[in-house]
Structure formats: C-alpha cells, structure tokens
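Q: Could you fold this chain for me?
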Amino acid sequence: MAKAIWNNTVIAESSDTEVVEGNHYFPADSINADYFRESAHTTVCGWKGTASYYDVVVEGKENPQAAWYYADPKDAAANIKGRIAFWKGVSVEVD
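A: Sure. Below is the predicted structure, expressed as structure tokens.
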C-alpha cells in the first residue's frame, strides 16, 4: 500500500501505483479530492507530454502545484493516464 502524505494528512492511498522515474503515480480515484484544487500551471515533458497540476490544500495550508498528471500522455507514457504523482514536500510511504 502506498500513501501520499502532506501536512500530516493522507491525501492519497492505493495498492495500485505505477512508478515512473522514481515517482509513484496514484489512480485518480485514490486521492481525497477535498485536498486538491486545479492549478493553471502546465509543463511539457519530451516523452510524456503536457502535465497539468493541482495545488494541495490541507487545513488552510497550501502547497502550490504539488501534484501533477498527464490528461493525454504520449504513447510511451500511456500507463500513467488517469494517474497523479506528487512532489514539493509530499511524502510517499510504501508498506
């Protein structure tokens, strides 16, 4: 089981993550949507495509662009479509 934790709160939990470049990609239905807010920020990866971001907000504390996903990844990254990964202080614990 993998858990994404920020501000002492589990924001995502799943036994079905995909690991790409050391990042656990959680299924979209495994996140607690109460803690996520769409961000206008995007970036481009040469082999995965365009990433969109979420701000993570827990108990009034905001972690801007701390989660990302590829809504329409390139074929080489098809395994992460519909999945969300984390950074910027969000810890992922696997037991």
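A (continued): The first strand starts at residue 2 and ends at 6.
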